[in-house]
Amino acid sequence: MQWKNTAKGYGIGARFFHGIMSLLIIGQLGIGTWMVGLPNSKKSFIYGNHKTLGLIILAVVFLRLSWRFVNVLPSLPNTPRWQVFAARGLHRSFYIMMLGLPISGWMMSTASGFLPQFPGLGKVAFPFFQKNTFCVATQCFARKEVGSFMHSTHEVLSWVLAIALVVHISIALWHFHLKDGIFERIFFDRTDNKE
Description:
The protein is mostly helical.
C-alpha cells in the first residue's frame, strides 16, 4: 500500500480524497435540493450549515488539487483513446464544478449580506466586495447584479454536477460489470499490481 499514485493505480491519498469528496458533494446536492422547499422559519440553520460545508469543500478541493499535482496519473489499461479523452475530460469538468459551486455560493452569500462561517475564522466575506459593488481590477459591478448572477450560476452548476455524477457512476458501474480492472482501481490498492 502506498500513499501516492503509481502508473498502476491510485494510492491511499487519492482514494481518500475521492471518497470524502463523493460523500460531501452528494450530501450537499441533496441538502441543497431539500432546503429550498423548507419554510422560512427552518431555513436559517440549514442554509448556514450548507454555506459552511461549502467553504469546507472548497478547502478540501484545493488540498485535493495539490495532491493531484504531486502525483502521477495512473494509466487506463487497454482503453481506446477516445475513452481516455472522455474520462479525462469528465474528471477535469468535475474540478471546475467543485471549484465553481462553492465559489458561486460564497459570492452569492456575500452579495446578499448573509456571510458563511468557516470553522475557526468566523464569518468570511468573499474578497473584492465593497459596500454596494464588486470590483476586480478596474471593473466594478453592482452587488445585487453579482448576487443574482451567482445565484443562477450556482443553480445551473448544481444540476450540471448532478447529471455528471449520474454519468460518472453509470460508467463506473459499467466497468464493474465488464470486470476490466478500471472500477477496482479507485476502491482497492492497485499501486503494486504486477498484472
